[in-house]
Write a structure and sequence with these properties.
Layout: H1 6-15, H2 31-56, E1 58-66, E2 73-82, E3 89-95, E4 100-101, E5 106-111, H3 117-135, H4 139-145, E6 168-178, E7 182-188, E8 190-194, E9 197-201, E10 214-221, E11 235-237, E12 244-258, E13 263-277, E14 289-296, E15 299-307, H5 310-346, H6 357-374
Parallel strand pairs: 12-14, 12-15
Antiparallel strand pairs: 1-15, 2-6, 2-10, 3-4, 3-7, 5-6, 7-14, 8-9, 10-11, 12-13
Length: 375
Protein backbone atom coordinates (compact mmCIF):
# COMPACT_ATOMS: atom_id res chain seq x y z
CA UNK A 1 0.00 0.00 0.00
CA UNK A 2 1.37 3.39 -0.99
CA UNK A 3 2.34 5.53 1.96
CA UNK A 4 0.60 8.87 2.10
CA UNK A 5 2.52 12.05 2.71
CA UNK A 6 1.44 14.47 5.42
CA UNK A 7 -0.09 16.89 2.92
CA UNK A 8 -1.99 14.14 1.14
CA UNK A 9 -3.22 12.81 4.46
CA UNK A 10 -4.57 16.22 5.46
CA UNK A 11 -6.30 16.66 2.14
CA UNK A 12 -7.81 13.20 2.48
CA UNK A 13 -9.17 14.07 5.92
CA UNK A 14 -10.67 17.29 4.56
CA UNK A 15 -12.37 15.39 1.74
CA UNK A 16 -13.86 12.92 4.24
CA UNK A 17 -15.52 15.74 6.23
CA UNK A 18 -19.25 15.01 6.11
CA UNK A 19 -20.37 18.43 7.37
CA UNK A 20 -21.12 20.98 4.63
CA UNK A 21 -18.94 24.06 4.59
CA UNK A 22 -20.24 27.46 3.46
CA UNK A 23 -17.87 30.19 2.38
CA UNK A 24 -17.81 33.33 4.50
CA UNK A 25 -18.83 35.44 1.48
CA UNK A 26 -22.16 33.58 1.33
CA UNK A 27 -23.00 34.15 4.99
CA UNK A 28 -25.26 37.12 5.64
CA UNK A 29 -25.19 38.60 9.13
CA UNK A 30 -28.25 40.29 10.64
CA UNK A 31 -29.23 41.80 14.02
CA UNK A 32 -31.88 39.14 14.52
CA UNK A 33 -29.40 36.36 13.87
CA UNK A 34 -26.92 37.87 16.32
CA UNK A 35 -29.62 38.20 18.98
CA UNK A 36 -30.66 34.57 18.54
CA UNK A 37 -27.01 33.49 18.75
CA UNK A 38 -26.50 35.38 22.04
CA UNK A 39 -29.67 33.86 23.50
CA UNK A 40 -28.65 30.38 22.34
CA UNK A 41 -25.14 30.59 23.80
CA UNK A 42 -26.49 31.99 27.07
CA UNK A 43 -29.00 29.14 27.35
CA UNK A 44 -26.24 26.63 26.62
CA UNK A 45 -24.03 28.07 29.34
CA UNK A 46 -26.81 28.11 31.95
CA UNK A 47 -28.00 24.57 31.19
CA UNK A 48 -24.45 23.24 31.08
CA UNK A 49 -23.73 24.70 34.55
CA UNK A 50 -26.96 23.26 35.95
CA UNK A 51 -26.18 19.90 34.40
CA UNK A 52 -22.75 19.97 36.04
CA UNK A 53 -24.37 20.48 39.45
CA UNK A 54 -26.66 17.53 38.74
CA UNK A 55 -23.60 15.47 37.83
CA UNK A 56 -21.91 16.35 41.12
CA UNK A 57 -24.99 15.45 43.18
CA UNK A 58 -25.81 11.94 44.39
CA UNK A 59 -29.04 10.15 45.25
CA UNK A 60 -30.07 7.17 47.34
CA UNK A 61 -31.20 3.96 45.68
CA UNK A 62 -33.50 1.59 47.60
CA UNK A 63 -33.54 -2.14 46.89
CA UNK A 64 -35.69 -4.74 48.66
CA UNK A 65 -35.04 -8.43 49.19
CA UNK A 66 -35.91 -11.22 51.59
CA UNK A 67 -33.81 -11.32 54.74
CA UNK A 68 -32.22 -14.77 54.81
CA UNK A 69 -30.03 -14.19 57.85
CA UNK A 70 -31.64 -15.97 60.79
CA UNK A 71 -28.60 -16.99 62.79
CA UNK A 72 -27.11 -13.59 63.59
CA UNK A 73 -27.91 -11.62 66.72
CA UNK A 74 -29.83 -8.37 66.87
CA UNK A 75 -28.24 -5.55 68.85
CA UNK A 76 -30.50 -3.24 70.86
CA UNK A 77 -29.06 0.12 71.95
CA UNK A 78 -30.87 1.60 74.94
CA UNK A 79 -30.61 4.93 76.74
CA UNK A 80 -33.74 5.49 78.85
CA UNK A 81 -34.13 7.59 81.99
CA UNK A 82 -36.90 6.62 84.44
CA UNK A 83 -38.08 8.91 87.24
CA UNK A 84 -37.42 6.28 89.92
CA UNK A 85 -34.39 5.31 91.93
CA UNK A 86 -32.17 2.60 90.48
CA UNK A 87 -32.78 0.16 93.35
CA UNK A 88 -36.51 0.21 92.57
CA UNK A 89 -36.49 -0.58 88.82
CA UNK A 90 -35.14 -3.37 86.64
CA UNK A 91 -34.89 -4.00 82.89
CA UNK A 92 -34.77 -7.29 81.01
CA UNK A 93 -35.78 -8.80 77.67
CA UNK A 94 -38.04 -11.79 77.04
CA UNK A 95 -38.22 -13.07 73.47
CA UNK A 96 -40.89 -15.10 71.67
CA UNK A 97 -39.30 -18.41 72.68
CA UNK A 98 -39.74 -17.45 76.35
CA UNK A 99 -35.97 -17.04 76.58
CA UNK A 100 -34.87 -14.43 79.07
CA UNK A 101 -31.95 -12.34 77.86
CA UNK A 102 -29.69 -11.29 80.68
CA UNK A 103 -29.32 -7.54 80.96
CA UNK A 104 -25.63 -7.62 81.77
CA UNK A 105 -24.93 -5.11 79.00
CA UNK A 106 -27.21 -2.50 80.61
CA UNK A 107 -25.89 -0.09 83.22
CA UNK A 108 -27.88 1.68 85.94
CA UNK A 109 -26.74 5.23 86.68
CA UNK A 110 -28.41 7.54 89.25
CA UNK A 111 -29.15 10.90 87.64
CA UNK A 112 -31.44 13.93 87.90
CA UNK A 113 -34.61 13.60 85.84
CA UNK A 114 -34.94 17.32 85.09
CA UNK A 115 -32.83 18.51 82.17
CA UNK A 116 -30.43 21.40 82.27
CA UNK A 117 -31.03 24.40 79.94
CA UNK A 118 -28.51 23.08 77.42
CA UNK A 119 -30.04 19.59 77.48
CA UNK A 120 -33.56 21.05 77.14
CA UNK A 121 -32.41 23.01 74.08
CA UNK A 122 -31.02 19.79 72.61
CA UNK A 123 -34.37 18.06 73.19
CA UNK A 124 -36.36 20.86 71.55
CA UNK A 125 -34.04 20.79 68.54
CA UNK A 126 -34.44 17.03 68.28
CA UNK A 127 -38.24 17.35 68.42
CA UNK A 128 -38.13 19.93 65.62
CA UNK A 129 -36.05 17.61 63.45
CA UNK A 130 -38.40 14.72 64.20
CA UNK A 131 -41.42 16.75 63.10
CA UNK A 132 -39.68 17.80 59.88
CA UNK A 133 -38.71 14.20 59.16
CA UNK A 134 -42.34 13.12 59.45
CA UNK A 135 -43.39 15.81 56.95
CA UNK A 136 -40.42 15.71 54.55
CA UNK A 137 -39.31 12.11 54.07
CA UNK A 138 -36.54 13.18 51.69
CA UNK A 139 -34.66 14.69 54.65
CA UNK A 140 -33.69 11.17 55.69
CA UNK A 141 -31.50 10.93 52.59
CA UNK A 142 -29.80 14.17 53.60
CA UNK A 143 -29.05 12.63 57.00
CA UNK A 144 -27.63 9.55 55.31
CA UNK A 145 -25.26 11.65 53.17
CA UNK A 146 -24.24 14.46 55.54
CA UNK A 147 -24.89 13.91 59.25
CA UNK A 148 -22.92 10.69 59.26
CA UNK A 149 -19.87 12.92 59.65
CA UNK A 150 -21.22 14.43 62.87
CA UNK A 151 -21.31 13.26 66.46
CA UNK A 152 -23.79 10.70 67.86
CA UNK A 153 -27.23 12.09 68.61
CA UNK A 154 -26.96 11.42 72.35
CA UNK A 155 -28.04 13.62 75.23
CA UNK A 156 -25.17 16.01 76.01
CA UNK A 157 -23.78 15.88 79.57
CA UNK A 158 -24.85 18.44 82.12
CA UNK A 159 -22.82 21.63 81.99
CA UNK A 160 -22.98 22.14 85.76
CA UNK A 161 -22.50 19.96 88.80
CA UNK A 162 -25.83 18.56 90.08
CA UNK A 163 -27.05 20.23 93.28
CA UNK A 164 -30.36 18.39 93.48
CA UNK A 165 -30.82 14.84 94.82
CA UNK A 166 -30.47 12.03 92.28
CA UNK A 167 -34.15 11.08 91.85
CA UNK A 168 -34.00 9.12 88.57
CA UNK A 169 -32.21 6.17 87.01
CA UNK A 170 -30.56 6.16 83.61
CA UNK A 171 -30.55 2.70 81.99
CA UNK A 172 -28.14 2.64 79.08
CA UNK A 173 -26.01 0.18 77.12
CA UNK A 174 -26.61 -2.48 74.49
CA UNK A 175 -27.87 -6.06 74.49
CA UNK A 176 -27.66 -8.80 71.84
CA UNK A 177 -30.88 -10.76 71.29
CA UNK A 178 -32.19 -13.38 68.88
CA UNK A 179 -33.80 -12.17 65.63
CA UNK A 180 -37.31 -13.02 66.82
CA UNK A 181 -40.06 -11.02 68.41
CA UNK A 182 -39.35 -9.92 71.95
CA UNK A 183 -40.29 -7.60 74.77
CA UNK A 184 -37.94 -5.16 76.47
CA UNK A 185 -39.64 -4.09 79.67
CA UNK A 186 -38.71 -1.83 82.55
CA UNK A 187 -40.81 -2.34 85.64
CA UNK A 188 -40.61 -2.32 89.42
CA UNK A 189 -38.06 -4.61 91.05
CA UNK A 190 -34.90 -6.35 89.91
CA UNK A 191 -35.38 -9.24 87.47
CA UNK A 192 -34.49 -12.76 88.48
CA UNK A 193 -34.22 -15.79 86.22
CA UNK A 194 -35.57 -19.25 87.08
CA UNK A 195 -36.36 -22.34 84.98
CA UNK A 196 -40.07 -21.58 84.79
CA UNK A 197 -39.65 -18.04 83.48
CA UNK A 198 -38.67 -14.81 85.14
CA UNK A 199 -39.94 -12.47 87.84
CA UNK A 200 -39.30 -9.10 89.40
CA UNK A 201 -38.81 -8.68 93.12
CA UNK A 202 -41.06 -5.73 93.98
CA UNK A 203 -42.26 -6.67 97.46
CA UNK A 204 -40.13 -4.06 99.19
CA UNK A 205 -41.20 -1.12 96.98
CA UNK A 206 -44.27 0.85 98.04
CA UNK A 207 -46.84 1.92 95.48
CA UNK A 208 -46.25 5.58 96.34
CA UNK A 209 -42.72 5.25 94.95
CA UNK A 210 -43.98 4.14 91.52
CA UNK A 211 -43.34 6.77 88.87
CA UNK A 212 -42.84 5.65 85.30
CA UNK A 213 -42.36 9.08 83.84
CA UNK A 214 -39.50 8.50 81.45
CA UNK A 215 -37.41 9.96 78.69
CA UNK A 216 -36.03 7.95 75.77
CA UNK A 217 -32.81 9.69 74.82
CA UNK A 218 -31.85 6.98 72.35
CA UNK A 219 -33.29 3.67 71.16
CA UNK A 220 -31.97 1.93 68.08
CA UNK A 221 -31.40 -1.52 66.62
CA UNK A 222 -28.27 -2.85 64.96
CA UNK A 223 -25.02 -1.00 64.56
CA UNK A 224 -25.11 2.43 66.15
CA UNK A 225 -24.38 5.05 63.51
CA UNK A 226 -23.63 8.70 64.38
CA UNK A 227 -26.05 11.22 62.91
CA UNK A 228 -29.01 8.89 62.38
CA UNK A 229 -32.13 10.08 64.23
CA UNK A 230 -34.52 7.31 65.26
CA UNK A 231 -38.28 7.75 65.75
CA UNK A 232 -38.21 7.52 69.56
CA UNK A 233 -35.13 9.65 70.21
CA UNK A 234 -36.02 12.54 72.51
CA UNK A 235 -39.41 11.10 73.54
CA UNK A 236 -40.55 12.25 77.00
CA UNK A 237 -43.61 11.02 78.92
CA UNK A 238 -44.77 12.52 82.22
CA UNK A 239 -47.38 10.87 84.43
CA UNK A 240 -48.84 11.60 87.86
CA UNK A 241 -50.37 8.15 88.29
CA UNK A 242 -48.23 5.44 89.83
CA UNK A 243 -50.09 2.65 87.98
CA UNK A 244 -49.30 3.91 84.47
CA UNK A 245 -48.37 1.50 81.67
CA UNK A 246 -46.52 2.65 78.53
CA UNK A 247 -46.34 0.38 75.49
CA UNK A 248 -44.29 0.83 72.30
CA UNK A 249 -44.98 -1.57 69.42
CA UNK A 250 -42.01 -1.58 67.06
CA UNK A 251 -41.46 -3.21 63.66
CA UNK A 252 -37.75 -3.51 62.87
CA UNK A 253 -36.55 -3.58 59.23
CA UNK A 254 -32.95 -4.74 58.56
CA UNK A 255 -31.11 -2.13 56.50
CA UNK A 256 -27.76 -2.20 54.73
CA UNK A 257 -26.38 1.29 54.28
CA UNK A 258 -23.70 1.88 51.63
CA UNK A 259 -22.61 5.48 51.10
CA UNK A 260 -19.36 7.19 50.17
CA UNK A 261 -18.81 7.89 53.88
CA UNK A 262 -19.79 4.65 55.58
CA UNK A 263 -20.88 1.08 54.99
CA UNK A 264 -22.84 -0.47 57.87
CA UNK A 265 -25.59 -2.90 58.80
CA UNK A 266 -28.26 -1.07 60.73
CA UNK A 267 -32.01 -1.26 61.25
CA UNK A 268 -34.91 1.12 60.68
CA UNK A 269 -38.12 0.82 62.63
CA UNK A 270 -41.64 2.17 62.87
CA UNK A 271 -43.42 2.56 66.18
CA UNK A 272 -46.94 2.74 67.57
CA UNK A 273 -47.47 4.10 71.09
CA UNK A 274 -50.11 3.26 73.66
CA UNK A 275 -50.55 4.20 77.30
CA UNK A 276 -53.19 3.38 79.93
CA UNK A 277 -53.77 3.30 83.66
CA UNK A 278 -53.79 -0.09 85.39
CA UNK A 279 -57.04 -0.43 87.31
CA UNK A 280 -58.09 -4.00 88.09
CA UNK A 281 -61.45 -2.88 89.47
CA UNK A 282 -62.32 -1.24 86.15
CA UNK A 283 -61.11 -4.22 84.07
CA UNK A 284 -57.81 -2.66 82.98
CA UNK A 285 -55.39 -5.42 83.91
CA UNK A 286 -51.66 -5.63 83.51
CA UNK A 287 -48.45 -4.46 85.13
CA UNK A 288 -47.37 -0.86 85.36
CA UNK A 289 -44.10 -0.10 83.61
CA UNK A 290 -42.49 0.58 80.24
CA UNK A 291 -42.82 -2.14 77.59
CA UNK A 292 -41.06 -2.06 74.23
CA UNK A 293 -42.45 -4.89 72.10
CA UNK A 294 -40.45 -5.39 68.90
CA UNK A 295 -40.71 -7.68 65.91
CA UNK A 296 -38.40 -8.08 62.92
CA UNK A 297 -39.54 -7.78 59.32
CA UNK A 298 -38.87 -10.49 56.75
CA UNK A 299 -37.75 -7.91 54.19
CA UNK A 300 -34.34 -6.28 54.06
CA UNK A 301 -33.66 -2.85 52.57
CA UNK A 302 -30.39 -1.95 50.87
CA UNK A 303 -29.76 1.80 50.67
CA UNK A 304 -26.86 2.73 48.40
CA UNK A 305 -25.60 6.12 47.27
CA UNK A 306 -25.54 6.47 43.48
CA UNK A 307 -23.64 8.87 41.22
CA UNK A 308 -24.16 9.76 37.56
CA UNK A 309 -21.50 8.14 35.31
CA UNK A 310 -19.19 10.41 33.33
CA UNK A 311 -20.32 9.05 29.96
CA UNK A 312 -23.96 9.79 30.80
CA UNK A 313 -23.05 13.35 31.78
CA UNK A 314 -21.23 13.86 28.44
CA UNK A 315 -24.15 12.44 26.47
CA UNK A 316 -26.61 14.73 28.26
CA UNK A 317 -24.30 17.70 27.70
CA UNK A 318 -24.05 16.96 23.95
CA UNK A 319 -27.82 16.60 23.82
CA UNK A 320 -28.27 20.02 25.42
CA UNK A 321 -25.87 21.77 23.01
CA UNK A 322 -27.14 20.02 19.89
CA UNK A 323 -30.79 20.45 20.86
CA UNK A 324 -30.41 24.18 21.46
CA UNK A 325 -28.56 24.63 18.15
CA UNK A 326 -31.28 22.82 16.20
CA UNK A 327 -34.17 24.43 18.05
CA UNK A 328 -32.89 28.00 17.77
CA UNK A 329 -32.14 27.51 14.04
CA UNK A 330 -35.67 26.29 13.34
CA UNK A 331 -37.25 29.02 15.47
CA UNK A 332 -35.16 31.71 13.76
CA UNK A 333 -36.19 30.45 10.30
CA UNK A 334 -39.86 30.21 11.31
CA UNK A 335 -39.91 33.70 12.82
CA UNK A 336 -38.14 35.12 9.75
CA UNK A 337 -40.63 33.45 7.44
CA UNK A 338 -43.57 34.85 9.43
CA UNK A 339 -42.05 38.35 9.36
CA UNK A 340 -41.56 38.11 5.58
CA UNK A 341 -45.22 37.21 5.10
CA UNK A 342 -46.43 40.05 7.33
CA UNK A 343 -44.10 42.63 5.75
CA UNK A 344 -45.09 41.54 2.23
CA UNK A 345 -48.77 41.72 3.08
CA UNK A 346 -48.58 45.23 4.57
CA UNK A 347 -45.67 46.40 2.38
CA UNK A 348 -43.30 47.04 5.27
CA UNK A 349 -39.52 47.14 5.37
CA UNK A 350 -37.89 45.91 2.15
CA UNK A 351 -41.34 45.40 0.64
CA UNK A 352 -42.26 49.12 0.87
CA UNK A 353 -42.67 50.78 -2.62
CA UNK A 354 -39.75 53.12 -3.44
CA UNK A 355 -40.04 56.24 -5.69
CA UNK A 356 -36.92 56.12 -7.87
CA UNK A 357 -35.80 57.53 -11.19
CA UNK A 358 -36.58 54.20 -12.76
CA UNK A 359 -40.17 54.56 -11.63
CA UNK A 360 -40.42 58.06 -13.10
CA UNK A 361 -39.05 56.81 -16.46
CA UNK A 362 -41.65 54.08 -16.55
CA UNK A 363 -44.36 56.70 -15.93
CA UNK A 364 -43.16 59.02 -18.81
CA UNK A 365 -42.91 56.02 -21.12
CA UNK A 366 -46.51 55.12 -20.39
CA UNK A 367 -47.64 58.70 -21.13
CA UNK A 368 -45.82 58.59 -24.52
CA UNK A 369 -47.67 55.44 -25.42
CA UNK A 370 -50.96 57.13 -24.68
CA UNK A 371 -50.13 60.13 -26.93
CA UNK A 372 -49.11 57.90 -29.85
CA UNK A 373 -52.32 55.97 -29.60
CA UNK A 374 -54.39 59.18 -29.64
CA UNK A 375 -52.47 60.54 -32.63
Amino acid sequence: MRRLSRRNALSLVKELDAFPKVADSYVETSPSGGTVSIIAFSAMAVLAILEFFVYRDTWMKYEYEVDKDFSSKLRINVDITVAMKCQHVGADILDLAETMITSNGLQYEPVIFELSPQQRLWQRTLHLIQSRLREEHALQEVLYKTLLKGAPTALPPREDAPQEPLNACRIHGHVYVNKVAGNLHITVGKPIHHPQGHAHIAAFVSHEAYNFSHRIDHLSFGEEIPGIINPLDGTEKITYNYNQMYQYFITVVPTKLNTYLISADTHQFSVTERERVINHAAGSHGVSGIFVKYDTSSLMVTVSEQHMPLWQFLVRLCGIIGGIFSTTGMLHSLVGFCFDIICCRFRLGVYRPRETAEGEGCLSLAQGWEEDSVG
